[in-house]
Amino acid sequence: MNNQQWSSKLGFVLAAAGSAIGLGAIWKFPYMAGSNGGSIFLLFFIIFTVLIAGPILLAEFVVGRRGKKDAISTFQKLAPSTAWPFIGILGTFIAIIILSFYSVVGGWILSYLARSISGGLSGLTQAEYGALFETIISNPVEVLLAQFIFMIMTIIVVSGGIQNGIEKASTFMMPALLVIFVILAIRSLTLDGAAEGVAYLFVPDWSYFTPETMLLALGQSFFALSVGVSVMITYASYLNDQDNLGRSTLSVASLNIVISILASLVIFPAVFALGFEPGEGPGLVFVVLPAVFNELAFGGVFMFVFLILLLFATLTSAFSILEIVVASFSRGKDQKRTKYTWIAGALIFAVGIPSALSFGVLTDVTIMGYLIFDFADYFTASFGLPLGALLICLFIGFQLSKADVYEELEKGVGMRAKWMPVWYFAVKYLAPLAILFIFLQSFDIV
């Protein structure tokens, strides 16, 4: 059993929500929604989060608390002498790859934050903001130094353990994130012409009601809740038996949806009010937003606050991803936690170096036609996470007995009995079929 534990249910929920939110809600969701019809994408994202990704999140909670160990040891305990521990091994491997390029984006945020403090983000044209982004990501010294600093920040917090490190940081960061987002959303909504952005987000444009939009929204729901990479298995292993897993799942999924909507309310009203395009793609945060904030009164202050917010959200996700690797390395040896955290962090930084350099000195190096950074993102999002989520569904549905699963759900103030069969059906049948559709779409079979 793990000696590490959360000091409170709130601490667990905030840390789990911090893991799930991150760049997925703040960076990726707005540009995905902006490129795929806004309101229709949001509608399907909410539906799939509730019906598919949410149930898989609860499945990971069940497995994690049942095993009360790191992901690999959990599957060894629950299914000894089988191949099921491969799920934990896969999760650890995918976590290393995700954080290796995730830390690069964290470094970009630090670079922008430094320029925000020095005034380097003020008074540029939109074209100059685009050129600035290209300059930053192609500078090998800057990207590696920024990535290194980001990883050091992550390592220091995670080495402190659950209560003194991750929980304490998340308990501060998540409420601050919500408060700052509400303030920024209010400011954005008061701009002249903001109503068009609100309409884009909430008034359906049925021309985007296509299978492609549905599949993209389904994939975003997996990415946004961090399912399939054993993050939540590891976090749930630190829970006591009195915590209500169903309510924790509802809290995390709800916070994720709220932050995604708030991020869109910050971005889309301002984008429409100031004449930008919502379908700018991944550059929406790094290229368009500085230009948008430059048009506002006290825009430099708002940009600084937004970058702090984005850094907080990115760090909370990084904490959870590194925790998977540290837990797998240390296998419950808490006295060696600090050592294993630095080893894991150094390994991930080294693995991320090619991704950091892929927009500069390694720009001519491609894998399957992708830059190294883009391939790492594609591989994890299109293969690693869906495969991990599919295997967890199969493990719950066909390896663990239904009696054991229901027993875990009933502990403490348990889930209402009438919801258990509905959830079980969704995990055993509905979610696997949805994941198979993602795989088929990824390989252009459908």
From TrEMBL:
GO terms for cellular component: membrane. It is found in: Membrane. Keywords: Membrane, Transmembrane, Transmembrane helix, Transport. Pfam families: SNF. PROSITE patterns: NA_NEUROTRAN_SYMP_3 (PS50267). The chain crosses the membrane at residues 40-63, 84-110, 143-162, 174-195, 215-238, 250-276, 296-329, 341-372, 378-401, 422-443. The keyword Transport applies. Its main location: membrane. It is a multi-pass membrane protein. NCBIfam families: Na_transp. PANTHER family: TRANSPORTER (PTHR42948). This is Transporter.
